[in-house]
Design brief:
The protein is an alpha/beta fold. The protein has 2 domains: about 60 residues; about 200 residues, Rossmann fold. Helices cover about 40% and strands about 20% of the residues. Strands 5-4-3-6-7-9-8 form a 7-stranded mixed β-sheet, sandwiched between helices. Helix 2 packs antiparallel against helix 4. The protein starts with a helix and ends with a strand. The structure holds S-adenosylmethionine.
């Protein structure tokens, strides 16, 4: 007998609760919406709509995967970031809301009509670069990544969002091969988790985010040690650097930026009041 939207939703929540999933109600709703093409409003206003056998089977597959701690964004292959919906593959980090702090800060440093150049080193799905380009129509940007598979996702997202005319992509290590003093702003959200901490992370992260996006080496600082002098080299005089950091890395990353020659070095908090972004300016 076919089940209804409301019954499917209740059953999905119970299933995820029994599997100790943190947010069973939200996850159940997102998976149900995707499996049935129903909207959140449909579930409330048309609760007795029946699922087809195929929709029910799809929902069950999604619930099995979530119960085994696969994140919803991986199951659906997409994630909202800033005002964009980004496609994902197994080769890119699921973009995190904390990273929106960098986007917000770049928008505060620029005016809507400014024609600046931005580099996003370690672009992943394209979250930072594409969000900024979507808000700043005269800006141009370049995203680099060591992973060709990640770059393919970023390129695809740029094309889907109509931003590919202003975005370029390059497979390289951070800024290697790029000309000195060629950008007004350089941003990066590098891998920054200490290698020995990775086994303690939630299964959603350690089993499903790419290791290249997580592992910051024995101290967690390996990427910043390379990035600080490299970002300095890439920036025009007076240009701005913004790097995402882990909650306990402010002092170390600030020191690396100062040692590289930056001025105005400062740390900014995210919405949970955790240190999240280090900014710095290349002296004019
Ligand atoms: C934490 S993820 C951030 C992805 C994206 N910028 C975001 O915020 O969602 C770090 C990214 O850096 C890339 N990466 C790691 N080592 C790199 C290197 N040496 N050069 C360039 N990219 C690198 C990874 O492949 C991954 O896409």
């Amino acid at each position: 007998m076919p089940i209804t939207l409301v019954k499917a939703w209740t059953g999905a929540q119970q299933r995820l609760k029994a599997a100790n999933i943190d947010s069973p109600a939200i996850d159940a709703r997102l998976l149900l919406e995707a499996a049935t093409d129903a909207t959140r409003t449909d579930i409330i206003t048309d609760p007795y709509r029946e699922l087809t056998a195929e929709q029910e089977a799809t929902l069950n597959t999604y619930l099995d995967r979530r119960a085994k701690r696969e994140p919803v964004a991986r199951i659906l292959g997409r994630k909202g970031f800033w005002k964009l919906l980004l496609n994902l593959s197994d080769h890119v980090l699921i973009p995190r809301p904390e990273t929106e702090v960098i986007v917000d800060m770049i928008l505060k440093k620029t005016q809507p009509a400014d024609a600046f150049t931005l580099a996003d080193l370690g672009i992943g799905s394209g979250a930072i670069l594409l969000s900024v380009l979507s808000e700043r129509p005269a800006a141009k940007g370049l995203g680099t990544d060591i992973s060709e598979e990640a770059l393919a996702v970023a390129r695809d997202n740029a094309a889907n969002l109509g931003l590919d005319g202003r975005a370029a992509f390059l497979r390289t290590s951070w800024g290697s091969g790029l000309a000195d003093a060629s950008f007004d702003i350089v941003a990066s959200n590098p891998p920054y988790i200490r290698s020995d901490v990775i086994p303690m992370l939630d299964p959603e992260v350690k089993n499903h985010d790419p290791m290249l996006a997580l592992d910051g080496g024995p101290t967690g600082l390996a990427a910043y040690e390379e990035l600080a002098p490299e970002i300095f080299r890439l920036l025009k005089p007076g240009g701005h650097a913004l790097v995402e950091i882990g909650f306990d890395q402010s002092q170390d990353v600030e020191s690396l930026m100062k040692d590289a020659g930056f001025g105005d070095v400062a740390t900014w908090l995210d919405l949970s009041n955790q240190p999240r972004v280090v900014t710095a300016t290349k002296p004019s």
